[in-house]
Amino acid sequence: MRQKRTAGRQRLRMVALFSAWCMVVFVSRFGLSRARALSMAALLGACGGAPEPRAASTSVTPAVPAARRAAVPNDCEQRPGQPLPEPLARTYTGVAAKARCQREVYTIMGGVTHFLGVKCNYCHLLPDYRAMTHRKEIANWMASELVPALQKQGGAGQPWCNSCHTSAGKGVAKILGDPRRPSFAIEWMTTHLVEDFQTKQGSPLRCKSCHRGNLGTPEFQKSVILTDHLPTD
User: Fold this and answer.
1) Is there a domain that residue 220 lies in?
2) Are residues 102 and 204 in the same domain?
3) Are residues 42 and 98 both part of a single domain?
């Protein structure tokens, strides 16, 4: 009964809109008086006018079981009929330190390129992927030193590349500007880094947590990357 009343109200609304449109057309296009146009529009509306809206579909998409929603592909799991996953080609440190098989290395690195909005050659010296570069050194330092020293507010886990390197929904390698903008760097540090993260022990972040002193003091050290100036409490 309730569905019928709803459908009736929708039809009346569509008829009213159709009648109003007809009245405007009769006055502007055909020069009829407002009274004459009103009567003709009402007549057309009463005869049907606008089509009745389609009834909403009552079919319901089966819900995906929670276990399936939570399932994440395991790169290192052997699949039926497939060979064993390729073992690690070597021991990795830094960004790929948690990889358990070679395929997982590619998955991790693919995520990094996506989160930073770059291609492999941004950090790697192709075709020698093993060659060390300055950007590889920075990325490995962030993964092995900076990330383990922090956690998200409320103990919501460790940050990763996309926790910071995002601007307007897109990955950005130089999050503080290229070249760096000092005023924006200060704003970003105080409104994002300090507010969204805490030390791994749960203590609040302060400028001196990494810079050895608060902004504007003689103890303040500008450079943090590739140093041991990290939170210890």
Assistant:
1) no
2) yes
3) no
Separation of alpha carbons 49 and 194, rounded Å? 61
What range does the domain containing 190 cover?
94-211
Q: Check: CB of residue 162 under 8 Å from CB of residue 115.
A: yes
103 and 185 within one domain: yes
Measured distance CA(225)–CA(176) in Å, rounded: 13
> What are φ and ψ of residue 167, in 5° steps?
-140, 120
* Bridge partner residues of 167 (DSSP): 170
Number of domains present in the structure of the chain: 2
Instruction: Specify the pTM.
Output: 0.66
If you average pLDDT over residues 77-97, what whole number do you get? Answer: 92
Q: What is the pLDDT of residues 127-157, one digit of tens each?
A: 999 999 999 999 999 999 999 999 999 888 8
The alpha-carbon radius of gyration of the chain (Å, integer) is: 31
Question: 150 forms bridges with which residues in the sheet?
Answer: 199
Q: Is 77 inside a domain boundary?
A: no
**Nearest C-alpha neighbor of 166 from the set 126, 130, 208, 196:** 196
Q: What's the CA gap between 193 and 214, in Å, rounded?
A: 15
Residues 34 and 105 in one domain: no
**The two structure tokens encoding residue 28:** 């502007």
3 Cβ contact list (under 8 Å, min separation 6): none
* CA–CA separation, 4 and 54 (whole Å): 13
Q: For tokens 């050194």, what's the residue? A: 137
Here the tokens at position 60 are 């319901």
